[in-house]
Design a protein that fits this description.
Layout: E1 2-7, E2 15-22, E3 32-34, H1 36-39, E4 50-56, E5 62-65, E6 70-75, H2 77-89, E7 96-98, E8 102-104, E9 107-114, E10 135-141, H3 144-151, E11 158-164, E12 166-168, H4 177-205, E13 216-217, H5 222-237, H6 245-255, E14 260-261, H7 262-281, H8 287-294, H9 297-312
Parallel strand pairs: 1-6, 2-7
Antiparallel strand pairs: 1-12, 2-11, 3-4, 4-10, 5-6, 7-8, 9-10, 13-14
Length: 314
């Protein structure tokens, strides 16, 4: 299944026009209703009527389907930041809808930020485990109907963006394949590090010797293991010049049949989907070809996609 990067066209510079409150947000991150008792602040209203949630998460594959095709889209960290800036530059903070259909009044984005540090960011106060580069917003709800009949009843659970983006089906011409692959792997490494830090911090807060364990899986096919082993040999033949450290670690993990967490599986699918074009066009000595094998190759991509659907659909 194809995965397509969406980006902001510099000529149009439209980006996001509104934020919708919805029952099933595509980014799969619920917002939370901020109330005075949750933060225990002094001199605040009994009910602040503020929603906080993720508007855009970078590098997260989002499933889409039209009449002819099924595919995934994603936004880079750079695009997420640009979208957050244009949202306010274009004066769209008071524009909102319900389920992408009915325009709403009385809702306004009053706070916006990009998560730069997963340990110190305010999202950690509410155990919201979002990756680096996530665009977070807080929305004030003055609309009584929406607050009482949709937010308090749980009919809406998150934010979903509305806007215009271009389709980046081809990689930028001014980047080399190696640089492009390294950028993808670095983003995956940052995400994985943020997950590890979050687990360690949460683990320290647990009492009575309890420990947090990430659900993990090792039932990927032998072909994925063999692809990783082959990638390691090919990389060794070119003096290990291909892949960043995270790619090399991933290869060792797969080659040895070690279990991988669901979050790692999602990152595998993201990487393999985005880097597949370099594998298909590459030769056996090319970094695009070798790096793809290090991450388990096409069989790992197929397994990852199926595993994600299986786990998330119950």
């Amino acid at each position: 299944m194809d995965i397509v990067e969406l980006f902001i066209d510099e000529e149009d510079a439209i980006g996001i026009e509104a934020i919708s409150v919805v029952e099933s947000p595509a980014i799969e991150e619920d917002f939370i209703a901020l109330k005075s008792q949750e933060f225990k602040l002094a001199e605040v209203d009994k009910e602040k009527r503020i929603l906080m949630g993720a508007a855009l998460i970078p590098n997260k594959p989002i499933y889409r389907r039209n009449e002819d095709n099924e595919y995934y889209i994603y936004f880079s960290r750079d695009t997420v930041r640009k979208a957050s800036e244009l949202f306010f530059i274009n004066g769209n903070q008071n524009k909102s809808t319900l389920e992408h259909q009915m325009p709403l009044t009385g809702l306004s984005v009053v706070e916006s930020w990009i998560v730069e540090d997963t340990e110190k960011d305010k999202t950690r106060m509410d155990d919201m485990d979002v990756p680096l580069g996530t665009w977070m917003v807080s929305m004030k709800v003055l609309n009584d109907d929406i607050w009482n009949n949709y937010v308090k009843t749980g009919k809406v659970k998150g934010f979903s963006i509305e806007g215009y983006f271009a389709d980046k089906a081809e990689r930028p011409k001014d980047k080399t394949i190696k640089d492009d692959l390294a950028k993808i792997e670095e983003e995956e490494a940052e995400y994985l590090l943020s997950q590890i830090k979050g687990i360690i911090k949460k683990d320290k807060r647990l009492k009575d010797g309890q420990r947090t364990e990430m659900e993990s899986y090792s039932d990927y096919p032998d072909s994925a293991k063999n692809n990783a082993k082959r990638g390691l040999k090919l990389n060794e033949a070119v003096n290990n010049k291909c892949a960043t450290q995270v790619g090399k670690v991933r290869a060792q993990q797969l080659a040895q049949g070690k279990p991988v967490s669901l979050e790692t599986i999602k990152r595998m699918f993201s990487y393999l989907s985005r880097a597949e074009v370099y594998y298909e066009k590459g030769e056996k000595t090319d970094c695009g070809y070798i790096s793809y094998l290090l991450w388990g190759g096409k069989s790992a991509k197929s397994w990852a996609e199926a595993k994600i659907k299986s786990v998330e659909n119950g």
